[in-house]
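Field reference: sequence -> structure
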Amino acid sequence: PQLARKPQMILPEGFSLPEMIEGTPTPHFTLKEDRVADKLVLDILFEYAGHRVAPHEQDIEAMVEVESDGKKTLIRRDMVFEKEVLQKYLDQGFHRVGANRFENGGDRALDFVADTLPTLEQQRQVAVEGELAHFRLAGDLGAGQIKARAASSGIDWLEVDLSFEVDGIEVPYEVVQALVAEGKRYLEVPGKGFARVQVEDLQRLEDKLAEIEAEIDAAGKLRVSGFHAAYLDETIKVDWSKRQDFGAMIHALRHEGEIPRRELPEALRPVLRDYQHHGYDWLHFLHDHRLHGILADDMGLGKTVQALAYLQDRRDQYGSMPNLVLAPTSVVFNWASEAAKFTPGLKTLILSGPERKKLYSQI
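Structure field:
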């Protein structure tokens, strides 16, 4: 064009300069699946002023000629823009197999469907041909999809069966464990598509479980101390139907704002003061929820009589059962005298000193 404007330049008769198009193009994406090759196929075209051209393959293709209605037009490509667009898809696992055809497969293709495709569809930048049946996403496999069923495993121990639920289908935890060990991130769910494993989410879960010394074995079972039941329930959603005692405990800890008030044994109602009644309630709360605890107060404020009131109530409610009090020698006889004074209905046997073995038969 610059030479043509010079008077010294003589052009052939009837010659006309081609029209020149410049500017940033609009990318167009068409997505489909190749079920035979098990691939995701992406067609990319760049539109310059109504003319769609395949992406460049080499830097020397900075100019491209197009013809419409016998008229030829030159397009000066925006090479920087085209490269940025192509690189984004190359980075996501696509590789070029034709002039404007790119393919992707395996986990990388599923990543694209899960992470990038929704945005492209929302922005109306991609046209999807047909149903991506083989690359359908059924959901996630993370801590939020875990189903946990608690059962007994010896005294004060819980065994929890773990599994995942995806679109109504249950997937054993150990299946997902094996998948992660192989470095894979997607599980094929028959008839549903693929579920994505939230690897980092599951790692955080297992780190939390390690804090309570709970481990998931190769069969997908979790063994944990019953005293960590409340913490476990905060970490994952647990079905307590087979251990309703723990379920009731967790509900109480989570929803009851105060320790429930309990009736004192009739003979001790005029004896215990209000703060001592509160200590008595505390002992019942610990027992009801299978917890250990400490009744702590200053010396001389009646911890012994609070404990005796608790033992008397247990006897009144459930009959005679042995209870063992471990105490320093200096207060053993004080315990016996207070029991005789405040709870004469509780039989006491002092086992103290070198001759105590002779009394074992009376326990």
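Note: Residues 106-122 form the longest helix (17 residues).
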